[in-house]
Amino acid sequence: MNHQTATQMKFVLYSTDQLVASDGAGFWSNDEGWVEFKAATKFTLATVQACNLPITTGQDAKWIMWEPSAQPEHDGAREHLQITLPLMAA
Description:
single chain, two-stranded antiparallel sheet
């Protein structure tokens, strides 16, 4: 596992349901909606903590850590790290 500081970490939004329904487009892009991994928007930890998850068919959207060396395969994304972030009080 890569030892990054919180400010260096990047995350992408992933949905298995969207991946299956959209022929490989299971990652969120702020510009294009659901896209393939290479076009996904990379989010900072601060943005992740402030964002709402997008609506998905199966309500299964989740944050996963983005690492270029762990790019998922087209026919089925593999999750290499899933994290749960605590809700931040305003």
